[in-house]
Design goal:
- It is found in: Cell membrane.
- The protein is mainly α.
- It has one domain.
- The chain contains 14 helices and no strands.
- Helix 2 runs antiparallel to helix 3 and helix 8 runs parallel beside helix 11.
- It is globular and about 65 Å long.
Length: 317
């Protein structure tokens, strides 16, 4: 019986994924080339702000931490780390993209022929809300998750689909592309966030309150070893199996599969509440500020009209 630090036996590539790091670095280089050097080639282009650049770098570090660092290997060993991935990538990194990517670049992306119809779905907020939560729930049906864990291409494709749907889900409340008059009101945006949390609750509750482990890829030795091929080079894994070093996730932890599963559901729910609390705070203060600005504008116009009326009255005295 080992511990979580024993994942070092899988080697450097499995634990630190230099290929994924190269992808993240490539995306970052392209981002900064566009926003620092080529922004003048875009309609409405402007220099990148420090806040946008900082948020983007933070997002890329988190993305690598979730899918490139040891967290990814651990997500195939413990369900709790899998749910940590889900929460951070789909409920934190996705909405941060609306603060990291300038509005002129978002407008260019949304107007691309391939994506224009996709983002048009977000004009009816109920649709992306149901789509993301529906696909997320389907993904965590035991037979579906166990199947996807044995096919690297389908598993990656499903995660990309979920990320795109999470972007779509947050579009109605954070996008800077649509004119302000077409946005939902501040109160409706707050209710929208509550609705996301409410729709995520059944899947989390099923996982937390299940009386037995639901996923064979975290309990059955053969299924688990097959699933590990998604993140561990086959040569390394075959060598470890041949030596009889590992037979299942119990080698790395004393946590029971049921406790691990329940912990995963709790992590998802708690992180969702934390992330959404910040979103609600941001939206509330933005709504309050806009309402105050509207009140100030009404007051200013009333004072101006009173002044003009007084001047007109004085002319005829």
């Amino acid at each position: 019986m080992g511990n979580l630090s024993s994942i070092s036996i899988f080697g450097f590539i499995a634990n630190w994924s230099p290929y994924f790091l190269a992808l993240v670095v490539f995306i970052s280089v392209v981002y900064f080339l566009i926003t620092k050097k080529w922004y003048k080639d875009f309609e409405g282009g402007r220099p990148l702000t420090f806040k946008e650049g900082s948020v983007f770098i933070t997002s890329m570090v988190l993305l690598y931490a979730m899918y490139g660092a040891p967290v990814d290997v651990l997500s195939h060993i413990l369900f709790s780390f899998h749910m940590l991935q889900m929460a951070v990538v789909f409920l934190l990194i996705a909405p941060l993209m609306y603060f990291a990517i300038p509005e002129y670049l978002w407008k260019y992306i949304v107007d691309l022929p391939v994506l224009k119809q996709f983002f048009a779905i977000a004009k009816k907020p109920l649709i992306p809300l149901i789509l993301f939560n529906g696909v997320f729930s389907i993904y965590h049906i035991p037979v579906v998750l166990d199947f996807l864990k044995h096919n690297a291409t389908l598993h990656s494709g499903f995660n990309i689909l979920l990320f795109m749907l999470s972007l779509l889900m947050f579009y109605p409340i954070f996008n800077k592309v649509e004119p302000q008059e077409k946005h939902m009101g501040g109160l409706f945006k707050l209710l929208y966030i509550f609705a996301i949390g409410a729709l995520l609750t059944p899947a989390c509750a099923l996982i937390i309150f299940a009386g037995q482990p639901l996923y064979s890829t975290y309990t059955d030795g053969d299924a688990w070893l097959a699933a590990m091929e998604l993140c561990v080079p086959s040569g390394v894994l075959d060598g470890l199996k041949g030596q009889g070093i590992i037979s299942g996730p119990e080698y790395f932890t004393n946590t029971t599969p049921l406790m691990d599963q329940q912990t995963g559901g709790i992590i998802m729910k708690v992180l969702q509440e934390v992330f959404f609390s910040f979103m609600l705070g941001h939206l509330f203060f933005k709504w309050y500020r806009n309402e105050r600005m509207d009140e100030d504008e009404v007051t200013r116009r009333s004072v101006e009209e009173a002044r003009l009326q007084k001047e007109l009255f004085n002319q005829y005295r």
